[in-house]
Amino acid sequence: MRYLFIALAASVASASAVAQAPPASPQQLAKQHNCLACHAAATKLVGPSYQDVAAKYRDDPKAPEYLATKIKQGSSGVWGPVPMPPNAGLNDAEVKTLVDWILAGAPDK
To answer: Is there a contact between 86 and 14 (Cβ–Cβ < 8 Å)?
Structure first.
C-alpha cells in the first residue's frame, strides 16, 4: 500500500509539473511544427518570409483571425502555387502566439 501511495504522489507531482510548464516561444513553436522548413524571418524560402507577411497585412484589422485560419486549415494561391499544409495540431493559444509573432515581423526576441 505504501508503494502505491508513493507512486500515486509521484505521478501527481509529475503531472503538475507538466501542467505548469512555461508556454513555448514562437520560435520553438515554429520549429516544432515545421514552419521553418518553408518560412524564414527575412528571406523567402518555399513560402513568403514572415516579414513579407507582416508587411502585407500590416493595416488589416482582420489579419490575426485570417492568418490563424490559414495556419490551422492550410492555404494555397495567396503567395503562389505551392500550398501550405494545415497545422491542425496547434491549439488556439499556440496559433495566436505564432500569428502575433508573424505580424510583428518574426523578431528574434
So the answer is: no
